[in-house]
Amino acid sequence: MKNIHLGVNLSFAMNRYVEPEEWAKIVKEELEIKYVQFFTDLLDPFFSPSSFRSRMCQKIKELCEKKSLKIHSVFTGTSPHCFNLLLHPEKEMRKFALKWYGEVIKMTSQMGSSGFGSFLGAFSQKDLNNKERKKVLTEELIENWHYLASLAKREGLKFLLFEPMSCKREPPSTIKETKWFYQKLNEHSSLPFKLCLDLGHGRKTSGEAVDDNPYAWLEEFKEDGLTVHLQQTDRIVSRHWPFTKDFNQRGIIKAEKVIDILKNNKGIYLFIEINYPPFEPFDEYIKEDLKKSVEYWKKILKGHL
Question: Please, what is the average pLDDT of the chain?
């Protein structure tokens, strides 16, 4: 379908296919797809000096141009998700997180990508349970993301993405919360904030059945320019399984149903996001499972032409 673009998040490459030549070859020659969502674990500012990142970003940009690959966006990886970032209890740590995001935005620009995305942050349990403290931190969170939007605009980016998550400490995690953040983030922002929906996210314990229903999320937020992370899951937890025969029997995500909901919208980007632990035996079959997942989605998309 011309209005729906299939791509891959480079989470599969995490410490396996670190060299740009390797993941680019897999995406172009083995998966035969065009669109890439870069995964920050492959070039995290905390672990790499600025001069090295600049060289690598230029290399990635030139390589993607040569292979006709397009980096749609850069997205936070597994490592930053282990931290509170812009919702850390300590002000000094939130300032450091702001600097970290600034470096990723600069990296995004240097790669030639026009968008950057992330989860918004994570409360500590103590702050979550303190109503006034939570309110103050949330207000600061919105302000900091507006600052990052202005920084991103100066760097030449066109949009920012934010991803709803699965637990109370990582807002937003419900449809109602997501609507609120969507409005607040886009008020007075230098750049548009767009949604990146993950089919395995949404809070099971919210008391609202729709929050645990991936199709309800898609119906609620289907719009032009939507980005979606594709994972097979049973929704017990966010599994990030591949779309292979065995996992499709165990999981609840049906490509036909997803495409049917999104088929009338323009500029939709679907990124397969498979997260296998970075060791054996997963190293042996992640590429094959990724190929099968791409074939599964290509077949469904082709059937809707």
Answer: 95
Strand partners, 71: 36
- The rounded distance, in Å, linking the Cα atoms of 81 and 58 is 26
Residue 254 burial (CB count, 10 A):
15
CA–CA separation, 136 vs 228, rounded Å? 30
Q: How far apart are CA 287 and CA 294, in angstroms?
A: 11
Beta bridge partners of 9: 37
Q: What HEC string does 201-243 produce? A: CCCCCCCCHHHHCHHHHHHHHCCCCCEEEECECCCCCCCCECC
DSSP of 43-67, one letter per residue?
S-TTTS-HHHHHHHHHHHHHHHHHH
Q: In this structure, what DSSP letter does residue 29 have?
A: I
Can you tell me the distance from the alpha carbon of 229 to that of 275, in angstroms, rounded to the nearest whole number? Answer: 12
- Residue-wise pLDDT for 3-20, tens only, equals 999 999 999 999 999 999
pLDDT reading at 305 higher than 60: no
In this predicted structure, what is the pLDDT of residue 279? 80
d(CA 172, CA 76): 16
- Residue 229 — pLDDT band, cuts 50, 70, 90? very high
Structural domains in the chain, CATH included, are 4-303 (3.20.20.150)
pLDDT tops 90 at residue 275: no
- Does 303 have pLDDT greater than 80? no
